[in-house]
Design brief:
Order of helices and strands: HHEEEEHEEEE
Strand content: 25-35%
Shape: globular
Strand order of the largest sheet: 1-2-3-4-8-7-6-5
Largest sheet: 8 strands, antiparallel
Number of domains: 2
Distance between the termini: 33 Å
Length: 151
Amino acid sequence: MRWVGVLCLLFSGAALAKPWHGIEPGVARRDDVVLKFGLPTRTIKKEGKEILAYLQKQAIRGTVQAQFRVDLATKLVDRIDVFPAPLIGRQAIESTYGRACPEGAPPKEPCYQKKSSGPRTYFLYSALGLAIFFNEDGKTVQSFVFQPAKK
């Protein structure tokens, strides 16, 4: 049951899994991130995007790293990548965000589609704007990716 407390720390304010610590992709601005978390450890600009990375001593509580990708044209956060510090398993994910989508029937609650990217699998919760990537073991979480939900 320890993981329940860990998930609460990691995702406080993220009942719908779209915002993370009050920063909602597609809504929050770059300045909101800096105001909330301070200056990032590292900033990278590439292909019209700026990535604000918080790691090492500046890692956000409950993470080893968090990255906020900002569209340089709009200054809006369009993606958040969170790398959790504690080990989080599949069971915790399913009980927090929902189980696999039913085959052939529209889902009544948030659910995921299991996908793969190279050797890793991930759960895609399209309605929540959330993708959860697993380590190569397929059992523990490597990262969470928050983006605007697809309608």
